[in-house]
């Protein structure tokens, strides 16, 4: 099937398939838009069951990056890479080098970074083949490095803004936040919230990870399939996408959904469903822009860590603008945010 025959095709500028027999690399790089600048977005390493799922993920994630970068005020377009992880093939330096050559072949139209399953050490391997890479380890005070903690910080500020708006609470002490996925983003968020005295319920498909963090921070761990229906003040999806469906939205028992995962809404209709339930929803690509702000400024060579923090601190204001407009127009926050982003990228 051609990329444009997929339901998630959105006039992407290019969808590129790469194969390297020697290292076992199979990768897809989707470029949604370069209207604002080079298409920036991380590389996901994931064990897709079917390659069509990888194409769909690349299409959806790259469009999300166009919207995210535009809304974050970065002069960058949107793209995304996915590496189809094969249990029989190790994530070797050779495989990462082959991926680096794939990025280089696009001549700077796509700039890569970390995403799920890819570390900053992996990016160092990639950078041996291409300069179109960000998220590399940097000296203290400079912009750049692992985007995870910066994403977590932006999500933390966004969760606080949502709690202020929905619950009229200024402090997070005693506010109950249920976090789905406690990896780089969800784990970082949990630590920040714990410092504020929030009540935490944590879940991860890696149950030991959730249990260990809950023990460390004084929260509770629950099975992964129970987290979305926890009665809490905030549900924070920080694992994978498409978890907000007709069924899961109907079962939510929290007034706020605000988390770092990309593409949380399974379909645009789910934005309407969450709105109809009166739940305050933080559009994912707005609340989770902290990481791309960090690596975007690193790649562009614009500004230092202080500039990154300043721009991340603008995330709550952006969310508040969206929620205000949503209240005025009686449209879901997701639709309002999409419209703002589309205008910025000339669509
Ligand atoms: P990560 O791999 O460090 O952590 C993800 C965690 O989610 C893992 O612990 C994994 O075991 C868990 N998980 C997977 N499926 C789950 C499920 N069904 N239920 C519960 N837990 C599950 O990844 P990350 O960097 O923390 O990214 C998390 C999400 O945030 C992803 O959607 C990613 O695209 C998005 N995101 C990440 C960044 C970043 O800077 N890392 C930036 C923007 C968006």
Description:
GO terms for molecular function: nucleotide binding; oxidoreductase activity, acting on the CH-NH2 group of donors, NAD or NADP as acceptor. This is Glu/Leu/Phe/Val dehydrogenase. Belongs to the Glu/Leu/Phe/Val dehydrogenases family. One of its GO terms (biological process) is amino acid metabolic process. Keywords: NAD, Nucleotide-binding, Oxidoreductase. With about 350 residues, the chain is an alpha/beta fold. The protein folds into 2 domains: about 5-65 and about 80-125, 3-Layer(aba) Sandwich (Rossmann fold), CATH 3.40.50.10860; about 150-290 and about 315-345, Rossmann fold. About 45% of the residues lie in helices and about 15% in strands. The chain is built from 13 helices and 12 strands. It has helices spanning about 50-70, 95-105, 120-125, 150-165, 185-195, 205-215, 245-250, 270-275, 285, 290-300, 305-310, 315-330, 335-345, and strands at about 15-20, 25-35, 40, 45, 75-85, 110, 175-180, 200-205, 220, 235, 255, 280. Strands 1, 2, 3, 4, 5 and 6 form a 6-stranded mixed beta sheet that branches. Strand 7, helix 5 and strand 8 (about 200-205) form a beta-alpha-beta unit. The longest helix has 21 residues, at about 50-70. The mean pLDDT is about 95.
């Amino acid at each position: 099937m051609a990329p444009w025959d997929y339901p998630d095709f959105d006039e992407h500028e290019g969808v590129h398939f790469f194969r390297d027999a020697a290292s076992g690399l199979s990768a897809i790089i989707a470029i949604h838009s370069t209207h604002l600048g080079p298409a920036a977005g991380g590389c996901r390493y994931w064990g897709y069951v079917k390659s069509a799922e990888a194409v769909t993920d690349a299409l959806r994630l790259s469009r999300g990056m166009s919207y995210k970068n535009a809304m974050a005020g970065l002069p960058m377009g949107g793209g995304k890479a996915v590496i189809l992880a094969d249990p029989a093939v190790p994530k070797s330096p050779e495989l990462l080098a082959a991926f680096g050559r794939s990025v280089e072949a696009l001549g700077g139209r796509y700039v890569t970074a970390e995403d799920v399953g890819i570390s900053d050490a992996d990016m160092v391997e990639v950078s041996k083949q291409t300069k179109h890479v960000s998220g590399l380890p940097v000296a203290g005070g400079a912009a750049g490095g692992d985007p995870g903690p910066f994403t977590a910080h932006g999500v933390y500020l966004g969760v606080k803004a949502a709690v202020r708006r929905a619950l009229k609470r200024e402090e997070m002490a005693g506010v109950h936040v249920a976090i789905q996925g406690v990896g780089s983003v969800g784990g970082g968020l949990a630590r920040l919230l714990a410092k504020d005295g929030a009540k935490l319920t944590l879940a991860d498909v890696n149950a030991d990870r959730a249990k260990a963090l809950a023990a460390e921070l004084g929260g509770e761990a629950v099975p992964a399939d129970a987290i979305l229906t926890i009665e809490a003040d905030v549900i924070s999806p920080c694992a994978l996408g498409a978890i907000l469906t007709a069924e899961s939205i109907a079962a939510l028992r929290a007034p706020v959904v605000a988390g770092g995962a990309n593409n949380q809404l399974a379909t645009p209709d789910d934005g309407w469903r969450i709105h109809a339930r009166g739940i305050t929803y933080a559009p994912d690509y707005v609340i989770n822009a902290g990481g791309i702000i960090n690596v975007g400024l690193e790649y562009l060579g614009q500004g230092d860590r202080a500039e990154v923090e300043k721009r991340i601190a603008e995330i709550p204001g952006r969310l508040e603008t969206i929620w205000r407009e949503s209240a005025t127009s009686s449209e879901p926050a997701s639709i309002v945010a999409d419209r703002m982003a589309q205008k910025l990228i000339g669509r």
